[in-house]
Specification:
Layout: H1 3-15, H2 30-41, H3 54-57, H4 59-70, E1 74-79, E2 88-94, E3 97-103, E4 109-113, E5 134-136, E6 140-141, E7 148-149, E8 155-157, E9 178-182, E10 185-189, H5 201-207, E11 215-227, H6 230-238, E12 271-277, E13 286-287, E14 290-291, H7 305-308, E15 310-316, E16 320-324, E17 329-338, E18 341-351, H8 361-369, H9 371-388, H10 404-421
Antiparallel strand pairs: 1-10, 2-3, 2-5, 3-4, 6-7, 7-8, 9-10, 11-18, 12-15, 13-14, 15-16, 16-17, 17-18
Helix pairs in contact: 2-10, 4-10, 6-9
């Protein structure tokens, strides 16, 4: 078929009497959509269906998620080894909030707002307005009017503000964002009044012989802003049914999609854990009754056959996802930027026993070789899924048994939205 014939066929399909009109005009009011979500998530797995397409494509629903879910729960935004010394910092933009993670003169790691308390410029920006991804400083100095802040956020100097007799520097510190450290991950919650605990104790038990406090970020690849909202990305990361298709030539041979040991949600509404055992075809041996997965680095010390026999996946909803393997661990950092886009940073971690000479360029390159083609495949399919959410035919789907984590995420959404409606 020629290109002209292809264009004519597309036009005919679009104008056919049975072709769908844009679904946006048929979107339900938000209260009705939330009721549907509550009803849908009460069903057992054998009756489960995908979320309504509106929940992926409606800007109003996304704003509801931001208000009641994303700004109310915990997010991993950094690792402690990324700020190893006094004055070391990294910048992160989370849900429209400019943040800086910094190690203070007292060695404490804090997460502060980057918004100057004077007239709201970015205290980490240079004179041209550029914000560095990381660096080392003695103090924060706003480029606009030279207000300076200590590394703990307290105001050091406000130029000539002694003219105002009532001016109290103690009232103008950079706000500190609530944070907790778990196995080297720095989690934040933008809601200072939250009653939701980080609650990673079940993950400690699940990881068993893994202690990610002894792992270090070897490389961080910023994939930039990608098409797809945060939910398709998290759903895709948790379920392995798609290995058969999207990863047919990359992951499927080693980690078959139908053999994943699907979790049951027992760790709680905020957590999902599961294990992907290596296939017999890809295994390099057997130990303690478990097939042993191939490695490109010596395995972390102290791991038995079970822990060396596959990948342990952890999701701390809403969107902290990481996977532990004997040689490499992977942290998928998802940063929503709109209803249909996100920024993605792929971090690869290695155990400190594999870093006797520190992090070399060769090691950093090796860390991304395996994961790069996999992420490219995931980004492509996530983008198409997001695009199709505006179709009137994006309805009536069904979930496979391996897609229980998709249902578990739905239940988390329903829980958090209901919690928000109750105040």
């Amino acid at each position: 078929m020629s290109e002209n014939e292809c264009q004519e066929a597309r036009f005919s399909a679009a104008t056919h009497p049975c072709a769908p009109a844009s679904s946006r005009g048929d979107w339900a009011p938000l209260p009705q959509l939330m009721e549907r979500l509550r009803e849908q998530t009460s069903r057992p797995l054998e009756q489960a269906t995908p979320l309504p397409a509106q929940t992926y494509a409606d800007p109003a629903f996304y704003e509801l998620e931001v208000d009641r879910i994303l700004r109310k729960d915990w997010h991993a935004i950094a690792r402690v080894e990324q700020v190893p010394g006094r004055g070391d910092f990294i910048t992160v933009d989370l849900l429209g909030e400019p943040l800086v993670v910094v190690r203070g003169t007292d060695e404490a790691v804090r997460v502060l707002s980057r918004v100057c308390r004077h007239r709201y410029a970015d205290v980490t920006a240079d004179r041209s307005g550029m914000v560095p991804a990381c660096g080392t400083i003695e103090r924060f100095e706003c480029p606009y009017h030279m207000w300076t802040y200590r590394l703990d956020g307290s105001l050091l100097n406000a130029v000539d503000m002694q003219r105002r007799s009532e001016f109290d520097p103690a009232l103008y510190s950079l706000p500190e964002v609530r944070s907790e450290i778990w196995q080297g991950f720095i989690f934040v919650n933008l809601d200072a009044e939250t009653t939701i605990p980080l609650g990673m104790e079940p993950v400690d038990h699940f990881l068993g012989q893994y202690d990610l406090s002894d792992w270090r970020v070897v490389s961080s690849k910023d994939w930039g802003e990608l098409d797809a909202g945060w939910k398709p990305v998290v759903e895709n990361a948790m379920e392995f049914y798609h290995h058969l298709g999207a990863h047919q030539h990359t992951l499927e041979e080693m980690l078959p999609g139908l053999t994943a040991e699907v979790g049951d949600g027992a760790a709680g509404v905020h957590l999902y854990t599961c294990r992907m055992p290596v296939s017999a075809a890809a295994a390099e041996g057997e130990e303690d009754g478990h097939l042993i997965a191939p490695v490109s680095l010596p395995p972390a010390p102290g791991l038995d056959g079970y822990h060396r026999g596959g990948t342990l996946l952890v999701t701390r909803f809403p969107m902290t996802v990481f996977a532990a393997r004997a040689d490499w661990s992977t942290w998928l950092q998802v940063l929503p930027t709109s209803v249909g886009t996100h920024r993605l940073i792929m971090h690869r971690l290695a155990h400190i026993s594999n870093l006797p000479e520190g992090i070399t360029e060769e090691l950093a390159d090796l860390s991304q070789q395996y994961i790069d083609p996999v992420q490219a495949e995931d980004s492509a399919v996530n983008g198409r899924v997001q695009a199709n959410m505006s179709s009137a035919w994006a309805t009536g789907g069904v979930l496979h048994d391996q897609e229980f984590p998709v249902l578990h995420l739905q239940r988390y959404l329903a829980f958090m939205l209901s919690r928000g409606s109750d105040g």
